[in-house]
Amino acid sequence: MQKIEMKTPLVEMDGDEMTRIIWKLIKDELITPYVNLKSEYYDLGLEHRDSTNDRVTVDSANATKKYGVAVKCATITPNAQRMTEYTLKEMWKSPNGTIRAILDGTVFRAPIIVKGVEPLVPGWTKPITIARHAYGDMYRNVEAIVPKGSKAELVFTDKDGNVSKQLVHDFNDTNGIIQGVHNTDKSIGSFARSCFNFALDTRQDLWFATKDTISKTYDHRFKDIYAEIYENEYKSRFEKAGIEYFYTLIDDAAARVVRNSGGYIWACKNYDGDVMSDLVASAFGSLGMMTSVLVSPDGAYEYEAAHGTVTQHYYKHQRGEETSTNSVATIFAWTGALKKRGQLDSIGELSEFAEKLEKATIDTIESGVMTGDLYAISSLENKHKVNTQGFIGEIAKRL
């Protein structure tokens, strides 16, 4: 058959461990046989990030701004153990955090619903979309170990050279730790507008939650900016669309979520969104069944799986043992990027192909063929577990 042609490249960001292996399988068996894939490739594997002093991550983010669509494989954020394992020059920051900071976007994550995988929360009948702020907080922090006898202060110097100081803590009788986090009004405003626009596009209610009763300056600033933008720019549009925006405390929102049927967007600060998106994904079935898209204020899209690099499966793979790794979220990252590229370039065939690949993936699972994580929780009577490559092969047959 004649392959579907692309006009504009999409940015391809390769990754680490088991997801890197899945990445190649998806391309070789599900995409390149049908699409003449045009991509600008960046290797975000940890070794290459280290050899380029993480410049490759910055370059991939700037390419995303240039071309407007990217697809990203899961990557390692190194800790002390990874420093030794990979003999790294430095404990590089999260590549996702770097990309999010450069794009100044918002991450929207939603579960992929399939028959036979019932949510752990019985009342959840519709997907819950987590909107995660993609800049600042602990992902752009500065932190230090403080020796006993030290005094930690929060200091800033204004444009006229005036210095303001606040005591953080006096470590007069013990060692300790400190952490400095920041955010910007511009990024918070972009976060709010992205969420309001996404809610209008999808006709879903929007929740926003922080802890402003405790963080009376930092979190309260988020609350105030959201309220101001909503009142001045979106209130009448929400009322016309018949959807609701409301603010509540993060602990109240968590309690509401488990009593609600779903079908809304829950906007969270960076760390809250990181945690809650994994919680929602697991409660809906599996981290392997959750989509993630980063949307920048100027309309760039970066698609990825919501989960990590599946390290334990990778170690099994290295030992020559069989794995049964769920590739659905990574497949949907590719289909999301291809659909968006097709929409932006007016290539209906490309968008249609991506939709058919999604359907083939869902049909495979609902026919009873699935990976181990889904097999353990599926309520289907006639089901059987296949290995990593076998699952992708079954999808290819249906495609």
Largest sheet: 10 strands, mixed
State the separation between the terminal residues, measured CA to CA: 14 Å
| Main β-sheet, spatial strand arrangement | 4-2-5-16-15-6-7-14-12-13
Q: How many E-type strands?
A: 18
Helical content (DSSP H or I, runs of 4+): 40-55%
Specify the number of helices.
14
Poorly predicted spans = none
Radius of gyration, in Å, reads 22 Å
Shape: globular
How much of the polypeptide forms β-strand, as a percent range? 15-25%
Structural class: alpha/beta
The mean pLDDT is 94
Describe what this molecule looks like in 3D.
The chain is an alpha/beta fold and 399 residues long. Helices cover 44% and strands 22% of the residues. It is built from 14 helices and 18 strands. It has helices at residues 17-31, 46-51, 55-67, 80-86, 95-103, 185-202, 218-241, 250-257, 270-284, 311-318, 328-344, 348-366, 372-375, 388-398; strands at residues 4-5, 10-14, 35-36, 39-43, 69-72, 106-111, 129-133, 142-146, 150-157, 163-171, 176-180, 205-210, 245-249, 264-268, 290-295, 301-305, 369-370, 384-385. The strands form five sheets. The chain has a ten-stranded mixed sheet, sandwiched between helices. Helix 7 links the parallel strand 12 (205-210) and strand 13. The radius of gyration is 22 Å and the shape is globular.
